[in-house]
Design goal:
Radius of gyration: 31 Å
Shape: elongated
Structural class: mainly alpha
Number of strands: 12
Strand content: 5-15%
Distance between the termini: 67 Å
Mean pLDDT: 91
Length: 466
């Protein structure tokens, strides 16, 4: 059975690259009827590398994307005794040694090593140099000094590294704590992880970790190193390119299925298919089809895809996703009446909105009434439209109160068309101030549909309230 894993460090929010790695691991496990495991790599407890609250962020963001795990190791740190146990086994079988080099001695050796282009060689490696007093040693792994290590990577293909270019790896620090490279190997072995799919920035670590595995006599897992995600300018994706975390996109109103679909296509493809359901993704995905070259993140394409998902989402399902954004905007829990009005407006809103945030901005028109605690504001453009045509609004109010106007989309359309003709104006010019008064913006869902949904009484109240 294939077992994959995601092993993030709780250092902050989930980077979009980590989310894609999680997606690829999850999909490959599902595609092969295997298991997807999650392990929190919290061994490094330094203040700038460990944030306990980040663990819950990892859980929540994976669940939001729909990437539920089959097994969980909630703390690598708690497994430290097991990691030290393996280091001691390596000492016993002669694959590791105590190294007593001081910081100053290491720097001297590294200065000399830079001249030759070769890694340092510890004088304690062969066990002949006596241990000095008062120095706490590290435990180093004896890396091979000759030959070539070969990695048959299922994404990158064959990769070779000359063994005499790799420095003896520190397994345990002088303070007695295990290093990342030791801990990750032990945990992967103990969890039975046999397929390790991770970023290409781990390739150097992989060649080091392979030597630990060989020294312990364990089976090598299958490795696949996924290219990094680049920004639009071709450099490594960072905050200067805009949003970089799943939380950024979640709070900006992107649908999880849209982000799932976009990340899936970022370095993997299936013919010309652009819209891929989760079911088809599981059916079609194969890690061997991941592209070798880095992919560029395109916010515009993601936003267009998100708009498409919004349009194709069931109205009631979309309402449930929209409610938290609306409640944050109006600062109160929506009443059942407000939810009903909002649901009525979703068919028109979702044809225009690219994100849930945009929908919330539009949706405010459906839930503001005389009892609302939320006071809408007008931007400069909207205010200018209102100030220039208040007389026209006064006439329209009078017509609404005295004439028998059919309060339907077609009825309101006929009224405004006739009003424009009688005033010898363009219909758009006479509708513009009404749109602002009713919807609080120059950009909105279809005006007449909105007026029907909120009703004649509320429409009149807003017209009178400017």
């Amino acid at each position: 059975m294939i077992k994959t894993r995601l092993a993030p460090s709780p250092t902050g929010f989930m980077h979009i690259g980590t989310a894609r790695t999680a997606l690829f691991n999850w999909l490959y496990a599902k595609h092969t009827d295997g298991k997807f495991c999650l392990r929190i790599e919290d061994t490094d407890r330094s203040p700038d590398r460990y944030f306990p609250e980040a663990v819950d962020i990892i859980y929540n963001e994976l669940k939001w994307l729909g990437l539920e795990w089959d097994e969980l190791v909630s703390s690598q740190y708690e497994r430290s005794p097991r990691h030290i146990e393996v280091a001691n086994e390596l000492l016993k079988n002669g694959s590791a040694y105590y190294c007593y080099l001081t910081t100053e001695e290491l720097e001297t050796l590294r200065t000399e090593a830079r001249k030759t282009g070769k890694p340092i060689q510890s004088p304690y490696r062969d066990g002949t140099k006596p241990a000095p007093e008062g120095i706490k040693p590290v435990i180093r792994l004896k890396m091979p000094n000759e030959g070539t290590s070969i990695l048959n990577d299922i994404v990158q293909g064959e990769i070779k590294v000359e063994n005499d270019t790799i420095e003896d790896l520190i397994l345990v620090r002088s303070d007695g704590t295990p290093t990342y490279n030791l801990s990750v190997v032990v945990d992967d072995h103990d969890m039975g992880i046999n397929h390790i799919i991770r970023g290409a920035d781990h390739i150097n670590n992989t060649f080091k970790q392979m030597q630990i595995i060989k020294a312990m006599g364990w089976d090598l897992p299958t490795y696949g190193h996924v290219p990094l995600i680049l920004g639009p300018d071709g450099s490594k994706m960072s905050k200067r390119h805009g949003a970089t975390t799943t939380e950024d996109y979640r709070k900006s109103g992107y649908l999880p299925k849209a982000l799932f679909n976009y990340l899936l296509k970022l370095g993997w493809s299936h013919g010309d298919d652009e819209i891929i359901s989760i079911e088809d993704a599981i059916k079609w995905f194969d890690v061997h089809d991941i592209l070798k070259s880095p992919a560029k993140f395109d916010h515009t394409k993601l936003t267009a895809l998100n708009a498409l998902y919004i349009r194709n989402t069931d109205d009631k399902e979309l309402l449930e996703m929209l409610i938290p954004f609306m409640e944050e905007k109006v600062n109160h829990p929506l009443t059942e009446r407000e939810k009903t009005l909002l649901l009525s407006g979703i068919p028109d809103m979702k044809e225009r909105a690219k994100t849930l945030v945009e929908m919330a901005n539009m949706g405010i028109i459906y839930i503001i009434d005389k009892d609302s605690h939320f006071a809408p504001t007008f931007d400069d453009k909207s205010q200018k439209v209102l100030n220039s045509d208040k007389n026209k609004i006064t006439e329209i109010i009078s017509d609404f109160e005295t004439k028998n106007i059919e309060w339907t989309r077609d009825g309101l359309n006929d009224y405004f068309k006739q009003k424009a003709e009688s005033l010898e104006m363009k219909m758009g010019d006479i509708v513009a101030p009404v749109r602002v008064a009713i919807t609080f913006s120059t950009i909105s869902p279809p005006l007449f549909e909105a007026m029907v949904i909120i009703g004649k009484e509320e429409s009149l109240r807003r017209l009178k309230n400017i």
